[in-house]
Amino acid sequence: MDTPIAINTAIDTAQLENVHKGDPEVFRSTTLGVYSVKGKNVTVLVYNVKNPLEGYKSVFYGKPIPKAAIKILSKRYKTDGGVDYDRMLNPGSITEITFNEKDDELTIVRDRTNIDYLYSITIKNKRTDGTIFQSTAWEYGAYIGEDENYLPYVKIDKSVFKKSGDYQVIIQPLIAWDKYEDGNITSVEIEKYIATSTLSISINQESYSKSEMLLLVFITLLIVGSVFLISLYFIRKRNKNKLIENEKQKNSAKIQLSTIRSQLNPHFLFNALSGVQNLMNKNQIDAANKYLSKFARLTRNILDDKDLVSLQQEKALLVDYLQMEQLRFSFNYTINHSEGLDLENIEIPSMLLQPFVENAVKHGISHKATSGMITISFLEQGKDLILSVSDNGNGFNTEQVSSGLGLQLSKDRMALLNGVYNENRFILKISSTTIGTKINLTITGWL
What φ, ψ does residue 23 adopt, rounded to 5°? Predict the structure, then answer.
């Protein structure tokens, strides 16, 4: 207060009351009196008369505490001769601070007061509202121009600002109001006495040191490399499993193709032997002998277990078969192909057309005698190979399910071939009218 109320007044130890049963020698209290302290300073100095140097001083500040005035924001940076400061004398106009590679700290300087010890400084990240720095310790030594007063300051290492962003600097009195026991004080009065000074700044971590850059590049390459290797491992594993699965499907399809071929061969042999029997029943011995001669050669070719044969071999097999059947039905036939088509070197699945030609003979022109005509074509259309068999028979209803074993087995064979040769497509099209039937088999991308 402005004038002393009591001085060198002894405290009667008999009046001290124990407030802590565990250690009565330490925790004892007494009442010094009731005083009006609003708007004033009250200083209480308690000491032992036998040893006055060991005393305790308490200051009660009953006035509104002024806001701390921030004078300077200084950014220290390294130079060849030591360190230097980049001074910014008007903190109120500062909105952005950029840290370069050589910068190492930020210094905040404020005005000096007689209650410096009350102020604390806090820095918060605006985005997360998290505190990244807090201190109640002020150093003295900041010197501004002609002002010979050494002002309080706090140094903040650049590493506190881990990355670029918006930050808030808060300077306010550090008072434990939560321990104030008088229930009459309001939150408005607390805000009045705790004056807060704030400063918003944006921090840019502009660059990294060479070692940091190298470390960043190394970590980035390590992460990218790890992701690449892991991805490559799983891609290869997936592709390997896919290849294994495709190979299983192909092998399964090949087994089924072999099964179908094993069914087609007896089917053909049975029909051929029926033809021999028919000629013998008609007592056409010479024709039967010729038939058997061609049948023997044809049988050897058919029973030759090859998956692929050249177009020339397929043509020869069809010629033998058609000439053999001409002995029974006396029809005509022709086999033609696109000019320049390499019959010797282009291969197709063996016995691919024979079942369709057999159907044309048996169900198409068998009753037309010399007026019957079968036409077989090997055509080149871009990269596609088109094989066709046509006859001038009476035709049939293509929408009805055929009872013929050969045609059904051939359709099943097309589906299996599409599974084995998945880069190509075997497309079968059958058209039939009362004046004839035509079968087109297109193998895409075969040439």
Answer: -145, 80
